[in-house]
Design a protein that fits this description.
By secondary structure, the protein is of the alpha/beta class. It is 40% helix and 17% strand. The protein contains 16 helices and 15 strands. It has a seven-stranded mixed sheet with strand order 4-10-9-8-7-5-6, sandwiched between helices. The protein has a four-stranded mixed sheet with strand order 1-2-3-13. A four-stranded antiparallel sheet has the order 11-12-15-14. It is globular and about 65 Å long. Bound molecules: pyridoxal-5'-phosphate. The site of pyridoxal-5'-phosphate (PLP) has 14 residues, from helix 7. Pyridoxal-5'-phosphate binds at residues 73, 132-134, 137, 160-162, 211, 215, 244, 246-247, 277.
Amino acid sequence: MNEGLKNRFIGTLSQKELLKLYAKHVNSPKVRLFKGFGLGVILGERKGVKIKTLAGPKPNEPSMELYNCHVCGGVYNLGHGNQKIVQILKDALDSGLDIGDHLLLSEWRALLGEKIAGLMPPGITKTTFGVSGGEAVDSAIKFSRAYTKRKKCISAIGGFHGHTGFALAAGDPGFKENFLWNLSDFKQVPFGDIDALKKNISDDVACIILETIPASAGVLIAQEGYFSEVRELCDDFGVMMIIDEVQAGLGRTGHFWAIYGGLYEHEKVIPDFMVLGKGMSAGIYPITTCSYKPFIEKAVFKDDPFIHISTTGGSDLGCVIACKMLDIQSDPKFLNHVTEMGKLFGKGLEEIADDNSEIINGVRGRGLMWGMEFNSETLGQLAMLSIIKEGVLQNYCGNKKDTLIMMPPLIVKEKEIEEILKRIREGVKKIKHLA
Ligand SMILES: Cc1ncc(COP(=O)(O)O)c(C=O)c1O
């Protein structure tokens, strides 16, 4: 990296000073939490599959170098600083492109919309854009309500769809109670339990929203046939099926979609809505999407094309990035690479689990999205810290703290997988005596 530029943008102040500023002006509980973990925590240099933290805050405390298996929940699918993406952003900026103007039509929204339609499961051809995953989920629930003229929404216990309005309402109580946002029209049922859905579905439900692989709930893998049955139930009751692939989509499973052949190769379920985020931006320029079947459009926009807008959602620059990112990640060679690396990673994790069965219940996952379940929440959290100290960034699932979620960048190479596994094994070994 160009040292002059680095000094202007990374490590502008000491970690100690930055922590003070962060606590004072941004979020003091977060600073307290990380200090309690005893970790250097401010993100510094980042490249490919690795990140570094800034040095300090204690004198002589070195910067940590970490393999990024958190990838911000699927943002860094292409690793950090993918040069093809960086270059196209520079070119787009040099050409004079900016976020566009939501009053007008956008060349790049049209081009990205076409590209997404070409990649979606058949029949999902329309797209509306956002900046965050929560915004895209809000759009899907909002559009479902407009189409069905119903208000109710069913989601999964432990699932996570973001912290905005409807997305928050579809999440767990822990995130919403403080904000007085327990809306009676929003109900949660256990994930993977078709009987629970049958008990709660009725002809006044607007939508069911599910992650294909719920990450925060513990990287849960539904039994084969579950999503097909959800589809049937939705059809029977005229309910919209919303699939959130913010984390599990875009090649994470080794298939472009998780719902359409990624979970079980021959099970190809077509939802009414597909929500994407995170990896769409390649971590370079934010953009998210909510794609849906065309029959829904008329009910949403009626006669007012401005009834649903987002000034910065679907910016021209974001669309340019997303188009390039989709080209890279939908390439069969790329997806094959994910499958191969996923096999290695999954096998390695299974071996670690088998060798440490006193503290690990098991592992589950698809492609490069894996959960490792420990015997207790305490062990899960200790394992997370121990593995970070060995140089692998990952974390426990937000709504299931006994399970670590591990998602290497999709560009990870065989040697890197081997090194990551070695470090995970070492981290686990160091807490085994605590069982
Ligand atoms: C599955 C899923 N959906 C939606 C979201 C919300 O995305 P954002 O944080 O960009 O609003 C997240 C974020 O972690 C997520 O994991």
